Amino acid sequence: MIKALFMSEQRETSQDALPRPVADYVTAYNLKDIDRMVEQLDGGVSFLHVMSGETTHALKGRDAFAELARSSASMFKSRRQKVVSSSTRDGRTVLHVQFNGVIASDLANGWVAGQEIDVSGVSIFTVAGEKITEIIDVA
């Protein structure tokens, strides 16, 4: 299913073209404004993060997501997720993103303070009503 979403038609985009909760989430993410990110989420939101084919996080619920988001944000001195292209169909928005971040302090995975990280990936958002009900991040 995820592969089919990657293959959907893409178009260059600005955040103005995104569904409001997704655009607000991305803006808040870049500002490291966790409270505003969480405001965009449904209480039962599902989150899945896949890195190099391995699931690194799978959780359900706004509180669990907020805890992970706060921990993740603190790992970076700065971070930015740039939307390269997007497509939206049937309540699902696929973002092709370029992530850039600077590590805040040495991490157990070998990343060191001041190291710059550049990663391309895909974020898939499911929106129902005015809330995000599912996020799948693949890098």
TrEMBL record:
SUPFAM superfamilies on file: NTF2-like
Domain of life: Bacteria
InterPro entries: NTF2-like_dom_sf, SnoaL-like
A Pfam family: SnoaL_2
Domain called SnoaL-like: residue spans: 22-135
UniProt name for this protein: SnoaL-like domain-containing protein
Highest classification ranks of the organism: Bacteria, Pseudomonadati, Pseudomonadota, Alphaproteobacteria, Hyphomicrobiales
